[in-house]
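Limitations

Structures in this collection are predictions, not experimental determinations, and the ligand pose is part of the prediction. Treat each record accordingly. The example that follows, with adenosine-5'-triphosphate as the small molecule, is included so readers can see exactly what is and is not provided: the inputs are given verbatim, and the output is the predicted complex.
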Amino acid sequence: MTSKAMGLDGELARERSYVESCRAASARQVADADHQVVAGEDVSGDGASAEALGRYLRTRAKRMKELPESPVFFGRLDFGDAPEAGDHRGQRYYVGRRRISEDPTVPPLVVDWRAPVSRAFYRASAHDPLGLAGRRRFGWAPSSPGLPEDLTGLEDELLGDADGRGPSRPGGILTAEIERPRTGPMRDIVATIQPEQDELVRGELSESVCVQGAPGSGKTAVGLHRAAYLLYSFPQRIRRGGLLVIGPNRTFLRYIAEVLPALGELDVSQCTVEDLVASRPVTAVDGERAAAVKQDARMAEVLRRALYGRIRAAGSEPLVVPEGSYRWRVPGERLDRLVAEVREQAAPYAIGRENVRARVVALIQHQAERRTDVKNATWQQKIGRCRPVAAFLETAWPALRPETVVAALLGDPAVLAGAAHGVLDTEEQAALRWPRPPRSERSAKWSEHDLLLLDEVAGLIERPASFGHVVVDEAQDLSPMQCRAIARRSAFGSLTVLGDLAQATAPWSARSWAEQLAHLGKPQAALVPLTTGYRVPAAVMALANRLLGALDVDVPPALSLRPDGEVTVRPVPDLDGAVVAAVRAALQREGSIAVIAADDTLTRAAAALRAAGIPTAPAEDAGTTARVTALPAALAKGLEYDHVIVLEPAAIAEAEPRGLHRLYVVLTRAVSRLDLLHTRPLPAPLTTP
Ligand SMILES: Nc1ncnc2c1ncn2[C@@H]1O[C@H](COP(=O)(O)OP(=O)(O)OP(=O)(O)O)[C@@H](O)[C@H]1O
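Predicted complex:
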């Protein structure tokens, strides 16, 4: 395979004129969608379908206008005559973010990157050309503000006459893309998805997958492109349940928010796990110990017992239901047996309750029909709701709200001792107990961890609806109870789980994927490693990799595709002066800058920068257009900056139990340059190559 940049003006001019045809066709497609709205509203036929058609067409037209302007294509495929080319023999296709087609009866001007034919663009190699004779990649660059980008270059690979030797280094267009200075929010990588990433993106909908990926290996990018691929390839199955993307925090969600719209997908829900379980406002804060116990998987068993402990297992009074001159009677032992049988079915609590009701009614109906006539559904309903049956249900299988169950558990030591017996020790139970139980369940104050307990109980009472697919990013940080909240919502769907055990910073973070996947309800998910980093230059990665040995996790060291990059490690006498000088120097170069430190150090540094006349954007604006961000180490996860200035690594390492993991996250945010400034000795692992 040969790869060469073609400066052929004639070729570029020909491609530019094709760009014009595509743009004109795309504009006509939008106009046509508008026109169809008018036509759609005029169609005769019944009012309801005309209205539905009108609504569909209006939405489609609106969406086409909402889609962001982007290069009309980024690749070209030239199929050869080999049998592998199949139906595409001798054909040429342009690959872009979305299909452009003027007339459904002729081949489209541009095919969608997710269409089956586009697979060859990402996967063909010299070794396996997949029927391609040649592949062309296009380079685009911004022209004037507000105008679409210009086609500025092209790069050809000849695949058909391959000599079996692939390029050892990435092509110029990929290199330019990964080395591009970062400004603003995250962008899509659709033009340069790599084969091992594409394999994940185009995985089957029914298969859950877990990606253990090194920093900057494209986990987030892969997850978002997979979401777009699934929506395109399985619209019916996905749209029924919906697709959800879960990220670690708001800053991160804002940073990734524009990727899916750029790929034409405007209505994917993106949220944090906290959003998922936010059934009520958070008005209390837990101590460290209580938080840790509440996030522990054993809480699930305690809650299950607390809920099902409300069911009366034995000692029911006989049930007597008067009806006219009759008195129907069910003996207490029969009722106890019936309740036990329903419990064994292990249906959700609310369904179990209705099953008990239905079976009691059936027993009475059996008696009644022997004595009188056949009973219908109205009669069944009347008996099911009559006072004696309702009273029996309230004692034997009471209707419960999650708040009632959790308030009793945390507020009443006897209830807690009963439910936690043999599961939590006395110290753990003491940590859970409310020091001052609220007067009533209504005045209870709930912490963020309590919301997970409420969600767990809510899920036992009634199963929540299941999404068709859920993408979970930074999954190494989820607690077992958070995993369970996600598992409940993907019980009938599949998962894409993305994470890096080396970046696990929460006290309850995962130490093994097998365990985490079991909590997520998908123990069979395939574990796929991604080790090539596209963000972090080799010099930065080498420094960060020094920490790996001290992290006690089983992950392969990350490799970097980028030989560029600069690292400076400087002991300084005074951090305030040093950070001002470092930021001033960084401002001379292109791209985004972040000053990252533990909280106290950062507050001082931001003040020093302000005093020196250098404004910094707060963390909430991370990933927007601000030039210098003051970023607490705790919020750095998932973000990236061209130039990262890390202050006092020892303070970051000491700030929390998994401080070295945090430091690993912080160091790997750098796209091009990393400065480490310290007044205190560096953490030991950093000093040993
Ligand atoms: N194939 C690719 N082509 C171009 N850029 C890429 C490619 N893959 C990843 N990148 C870029 O590398 C950077 C890192 O990607 P991403 O954030 O998805 O990695 P990650 O594995 O989630 O990282 P982390 O674990 O550090 O959060 C992003 O800027 C992304 O656009």
